[in-house]
Design goal:
317 residues, alpha/beta, Rossmann fold, 2 domains, 12 helices, 19% strand, globular
């Protein structure tokens, strides 16, 4: 393959069926986006590389990403098998990785190089799996994010033999970045924001609410650049440590004490709405506070970042 992977034209039966079902179930715009994808018999370790490959029109056979945090994983995993997060593959799930490589006949892996890979688990490093992959006879290609997103797009496009698509993606990405920079330049909105993340379990009918802790991805990439402040810590007892950047709570009794200017819902917003309605009914100070349902961002959807941040800026204004 001359050290390059060419997209598989004959998609495997299972993947083809899945993509067909997605196209039928989705609306016209979504269906078109799925039809443009092709599956390659490769492995990708790292959310950011998977996101770039997806935007280049390539779906890997398997991926190691932070599915519990990254919203796009739910879409991509229908055709690309999740194997656990990079930290898991370097430890307890190493055997699962070996079985997958053998079963699929994987010969090439793209591995992300970024520092830090994850704010919440700074010791996690996708490169920790490189030695094991090489011992399994897998050729490893490193995609380096230390010099920015555009060089990483070019690297990925070259490895996947998608140079034309890579050039188009760079133009699109840079255009969106410039538009965002113009939109938020000099903005100091000075809003106090509470970010609530919802999860609903259809099997049990249970809903879970998580409060985003200050200092996480939303603060770093959205709130701080917009001159806003995360006041979610007012909803939880002092000294309680967050898990993966969030606190799990059952009720919103302390919401008024945070004195938010804006309430943002991420994840499954329906999982929060019942508790939020009860909180507003019982806390008159919340009646005039605007509520927006917005996409979460954890620095995995690097290509979509300008659009996501732009949507937050529009809402918080």
């Amino acid at each position: 393959m001359n050290n390059k992977v060419k997209t598989i034209k004959n998609v495997t039966g299972v993947a083809l069926a899945l993509l067909a079902l997605l196209a039928l179930a989705a609306g016209p715009a979504q269906a078109k986006s799925y039809e443009a994808k092709r599956q390659a018999n490769i492995l990708i370790i790292g959310d950011r590389v998977v996101d770039i490959a997806y935007n280049l029109g390539v779906l890997p056979a398997g991926m190691s990403v932070r599915c519990s945090l990254w919203p796009m994983c739910a879409k991509i995993k229908v055709a690309a098998q999740p194997l656990g997060c990079p930290g898991c593959l370097a430890g307890a799930k190493k055997g699962k990785l070996g079985k997958f490589i053998k079963a699929k006949g994987i010969k090439l892996a793209l591995v992300e190089k970024s520092s830090p890979y994850c704010l919440f688990k700074p010791k996690t490093n996708p490169l920790d799996s490189v030695e094991y992959l090489q011992k399994q006879g897998v050729q490893v290609k490193i995609v380096d994010f230390s010099k920015g997103i555009v060089p990483a797009i070019n690297q990925t496009a070259a490895i996947l033999d998608r140079l034309q698509q890579g050039k188009a993606l760079v133009v699109k990405y840079q255009k969106n970045v410039k538009r965002l920079e113009k939109k938020i330049a000099g903005k100091k909105l000075n809003k106090k924001v509470v970010v609530l993340h919802g999860t609903y379990q259809a099997q049990t009918g249970k809903a879970f609410i998580q409060v985003e802790a200050p200092g996480g991805y939303t603060d770093q990439y959205i709130l701080t650049p917009l001159g806003c402040r995360n006041v979610g810590s007012a909803l939880v007892p002092k000294g309680r440590k967050p898990t993966k950047g969030r606190w799990t709570i059952r009720k919103l009794k302390g919401l008024a004490s945070a004195k938010p200017d804006v309430i943002v819902l991420t994840g499954d917003s329906a999982a929060i709405q019942k508790a939020l309605a009860a909180a507003i009914a019982g806390q008159a100070a919340l009646c005039g506070v605007p509520v927006f349902s917005l996409p979460a961002y954890i620095d995995s959807s690097v290509i979509e970042r300008p659009l996501i941040v732009g949507k937050w800026a529009w809402a918080l204004e």
